[in-house]
Amino acid sequence: MKRLIVIVGFLCGIGAGVFMVLNNPLGSPGFSVASESDTYQWRPLEFFGIAFTPTELLGVSTGSIDRSLGAKEVILTSASVILLQDEAGQPAALATRLTAMNKSPDIFTENVGVDTYTNIFWANAGSILMHGYENRWPLVRSHFVGPSNDADEDIGRLEFPVSAEGPDKEPTGIVGGSGLFSAIGGRYSETIWRDPEQPDLYAGSVSLDVAVK
């Protein structure tokens, strides 16, 4: 329980930091996106809360009791520690992530969204802070109706591109950094799939389009 409190407290601090960065009137008005993109695969090492499966997204279930955060105020959230691997499959970085339901799902507009707040750490180098919006409608559709063109079946697993523009049009992307990344901004996108080693959770890949402020 003590470990859970530390993780949740740390990730709440990340969320507060993201809010301050996104609402900083002195911040840079924009970025020039670099031509290179770094892609990492990731999977959760520690996970608490709901996994935002199709049934959880629609409120049909509230997830595993073993992962529950234990308070109704955070019932629609999750806190996790994730491992990022490079193209060779070698560990490259660690990240902490807080995910929360954006609003009530709107299946009529095919928008079932979550907000993500992620801090990626490279040992002895620095970190970047990211805020994103994910529309998980493709997961819901695949679960209840069948796979669509949004899911890639050619490689033996269903992959879902989930990064999208939020319904409230708030800015998303790489919003801050530290160490070697203190002057970094830009964009990123994510694709997710069922984690074969933890079938009730998701793994994925993140592509970073980095820019200098």
Folded structure, characterized:
The chain is of the alpha+beta class and 213 residues long. The protein has a single domain (2-26, 39-212), classed as AOC barrel-like (Beta Barrel), CATH 2.40.480. Helices cover 15% and strands 44% of the residues. It is built from three helices and nine strands, in the order αβαββββαββββ. It has helices spanning 2-22, 54-57, 137-144, and strands spanning 32-49, 77-85, 91-101, 113-122, 126-135, 160-161, 173-179, 184-195, 198-212. Strands 6-8-9-1-2-3-4-5-7 form a nine-stranded antiparallel β-sheet. Strand 2 and strand 3 form a beta hairpin. The protein is globular and about 45 Å long. It starts with a helix and ends with a strand.
| DSSP helical segment count | 3
SSE-based structural type:
alpha+beta
User: In total, how many domains does the architecture comprise?
Assistant: 1
Whole-number average pLDDT? 79
What is the end-to-end distance?
40 Å
Radius of gyration: 17 Å
Major β-sheet, in short? Answer: 9 strands, antiparallel
Give the CATH class.
Mainly Beta
What's the SSE pattern?
HEHEEEEHEEEE
Percentage of β-strand residues? 35-45%
**CATH architecture annotation:** Beta Barrel
- Gross morphology is globular
